[in-house]
Amino acid sequence: MSLSRRALLSAIALAAPAPALAQWPFGLGRRASRAPREGRADYAGQPLRQQLGDWQFDQIRTAVSSRLQPVIRDAIEERFLSRVAAMPGVEAATAALAEPGGAVWTQGWTRDGTPPPAQFAWNGLERAYVATAATQMVETGVLTLEAPITPWAPDRPNAAWITLEDLLAHTSGLPSADGSEPQPARFQPGAAMELSPANDAVLAQILTTVDAAPLADILNRRIAERRDLRETAFAASDPVTVSASALDVVRFWRDLLGERLHGAQATRRRFYRLHPLAEGLTDYAGLGVRVRDLPAAQDAAADTWLYAGEADACLVAYSMTSRATVAIALKGEGEPDALARSLLDLVRA
To answer: Is the pTM of this model over 0.85?
Structure first.
């Protein structure tokens, strides 16, 4: 490329407004394949979050590349035990925290002093695991993100214009529940984002058809067995459920972000278009993943988490500030996100 042409492209990049750049996946100049347009609509929801940069994923990959080594961290343990005991609605809890150098701490707790269970339910994380299996199928060419879902669900509203990516991003417009009478679409494919179990159901239908196995078996083979997650189990329910130790959940999240479950381009594609989950909130959803922008706390700087989960009973997150990974699950009523931030503050310090 000539010097004059390079200078021209650089000037265009600097002049482009941030919302426009947010639509360019993986950085300026590389567009994703476009889905079929007829029968679709342009996105008209709340503004998308500015996409993460390649340099941020390079930083993440470096931070999660080391082998995990169990360690004792008295300060983290004391804070975990004191904070969880101060949540009166919590009956049991588990946590794990992996530092960027590979040191990993984990601890369980019960209010009555009995031994904590080896595995906890991680409700809300199943979408991250299912999306990982789907992404692996896309990488091998048996599925494509842009293809319509007609071969698997021809009777769904707008099936000819809904893509696999719409199911993963919850931009399909499928009605949230099936009744005795056919339900109309909520919106045209691509026009908005709305979490719906219908997307999960059709996605599960596609994966089980393509892999010719129950969804729980698919996740076990493609994720747990592949990465030797011996304390992770998937139950064949609707939707599929995840039971695991906090340490295994940390390992899964590090493997995903470290590009050990699928490649770099696929990993970044899952984060390139981030839809706000609700107006005024700082939570954004990608393809089975989320990003949370945290304002500065009184004793800590602002932070960005890449995470999965619903954050009302469990979560797993990677902190851009501390470059640490944390997983927390509670039984009962508590605040895992506040507890996670408190533990990450110790790593930051």
So the answer is: yes
Q: In what order do the strands lie in the sheet with 103-110?
A: 69-70, 103-110, 90-98, 325-332, 314-319, 303-308, 290-294, 283-285, 275-276
Cα(4)–Cα(89) distance, rounded to whole angstroms? 65
List the one residue out of 345, 323, 251 whose CA is nearest residue 101: 323
Distance CA 279, CA 75 (A): 37
How far apart, in Å, are the Cα atoms of 182 and each of 50, 85, 145, 177, 198?
37, 49, 26, 10, 13
Could you give the CA distance from residue 79 to residue 89 in angstroms, rounded to a whole number? Answer: 18
Burial-class residue 31 by CB neighbours within 10 Å (0-12, 13-18, 19+). exposed
Residue-wise pLDDT tens digits, 168-202 = 999 999 998 766 677 889 999 999 999 999 999 99
Q: Which domains occur in the chain, in start order? A: 58-348 (3.40.710.10)
Distance CA 112, CA 34 (A): 55
Q: Supply φ then ψ for residue 19, to 5 degrees.
A: -60, -35
